[in-house]
Amino acid sequence: MNSNTVISTDKLTKRFGDFIAANEITFEVNKGEIFGFLGANGAGKTTAMRMLCGLSIPSSGSATVAGFDVYKQTEQIKKNIGYMSQKFSLYENLTVLENIKFWGGIYGLSNKQIKEKGDDVVRKLGFEKEAKKLVGSLPLGWKQKLAFSVAIIHDPTIVFLDEPTGGVDPVTRRQFWDMIYEAAHNGVTVFVTTHYMDEAEYCDRISIMVDGVIKALDTPENLKQQFKAASMDEVFYELARGATRAE
């Protein structure tokens, strides 16, 4: 692991009884990288992410996140990351500003920081007219963009996004990825899970999980070349049916 590495795993494994949800996964993620963690539903993506976020203790193997150990330093990990869950993570019965204030406090920001960053979030999202509206009244795409903004309001080292664009329209998906690019440009490492193979094209590197195992890890272009594929959908299809890497 070098000084540019912010996530490092070695044979990280999670078992639930006889079932192995994540099986000896090994990879590294670099600072400022957009790292895609791809796979079909049930492939083990969320299980792996929960271990890296300090929400689930691994069964075996090792990993560090932002320099902290996933077994012994879970509280330090939580202070240095942002997290956006697969299910909408803000409080729908609070307003936009109330959610910003609440989560800013959870992340340890001062009242002054919350005010400054809250104003910045509202301005960037164009939510001036919605700032005092209940979040539950907003369209899903708006909620997701707000949830992402809140997840990075404390300037974390890494932000974990679990299926962040599920159920939103194509235009909003594109806008959401523009926000991801901006965060990465500002030095935030983005770890994103998705089952949309076209979103793999937006990542610097991707890993593809099949049945709890990482079957491939490289840039999208390199993977398409290796599998002689025109799209990431084709790459995933070859992996899912057990094809070996093309020579």
TrEMBL record:
What UniProt keywords are attached to this protein's entry? Answer: ATP-binding, Nucleotide-binding
Please give the Gene Ontology molecular function terms for this protein. ATP binding; ATP hydrolysis activity
What is a single Pfam family found in this protein's UniProt entry?
Answer: ABC_tran
Q: Which residues belong to any copy of the ABC transporter domain?
A: 7-236
Family annotation (PROSITE patterns): ABC_TRANSPORTER_2
Residues in a coiled coil are none
* Nucleotide-binding among keywords: yes
Please give the PANTHER family that the UniProt record associates with this protein.
ABC TRANSPORTER G FAMILY MEMBER 20 ISOFORM X1, ATP-BINDING CASSETTE, SUB-FAMILY H, MEMBER 1
The name on file for this protein is ABC transporter ATP-binding protein
Lineage of the species this protein comes from? Bacteria, Pseudomonadati, Bacteroidota, Chitinophagia, Chitinophagales
